[in-house]
Amino acid sequence: MLTIHVADRVFCGRDEAEAVAVDAGLIIAVGTYEAMVAARPQARVRRWPGLLMPGLRHPQAVALLEAAYHPDPREADELGTEPLTGGALAALAMDDARWGASARRGLQRLLGHGVTAVDGPFVRPVVRTAVARSGLRVRAPRNPGPRETLSLDPFVGFPLRVLIDEYLTVGGPADFAVFDVPVGELPSRALRLSGAGSCVATVLGGRLVFRRR
Questions:
Q1: Alpha-carbon distances of 38 from 43, 48, 190, rounded to whole Å
Q2: Which residues of 26-55 are buried (b: 16+ CB within 10 A; e: fewer)?
Q3: At the top level of CATH, which class does the domain 3-55+166-211 belong to?
Q4: So where are the chain's domains?
Q5: How far are the Cα atoms of 90, 101, 130, 167 from residue 96, in angstroms, in the given order?
Q6: Cα(212)–Cα(14) distance, rounded to whole angstroms?
Q7: How far apart are CA 77 and CA 134, in angstroms?
Q8: What does the pLDDT read at residue 184?
Q9: What pLDDT is attached to residue 145?
Q10: Which residues of the chain have pLDDT under 50?
Q11: How far apart are CA 195 and CA 89, in angstroms?
């Protein structure tokens, strides 16, 4: 469906951009809201606060999905809500079913942080299947450097230039995220200060796969 996504600002190298038109999974136009609507009056319009930018690529996805357990919400009282690693993970009776369920929850949380691509490869078959079904793009690792902190938020320890998967271009895939951050300052600073938890929407292949309620 032809959709125009409007935000306070679009991060695409053009100061005047505030809207992205999407059709059939591709970006078909980037520009001002007025020009976009005038050219496509039949389009559905979605409005978002903050910064619309390319989807993020998470360098730590293998560790997050294959070496960490994402508790079920029903386990929160016992296990908490953050990914479990090390001794806490070793104490769990992990089997393929549990790894698969954990990966699916982890993938949903990554989408909720504006992630549209992950560095692979994935070794566990159940995790590999979960990633394939999620639609997230799998990229060859590009070695951004080791980080001691494992986090769902890719802005923890990684600069913005490492995290952008593909820039928004006409004819390119409609993979982007919207972060409710101030648009009057540098995107790298605003995103680092607010974190990826400020994500309000993630679009993958033109599909709205996450929306903050």
A1: 10, 19, 31
A2: ebbbbbebeebbeebeebeebebebbbbbb
A3: mainly beta
A4: 3-55+166-211, 57-139
A5: 15, 9, 12, 36
A6: 27
A7: 27
A8: 87
A9: 64
A10: none
A11: 26
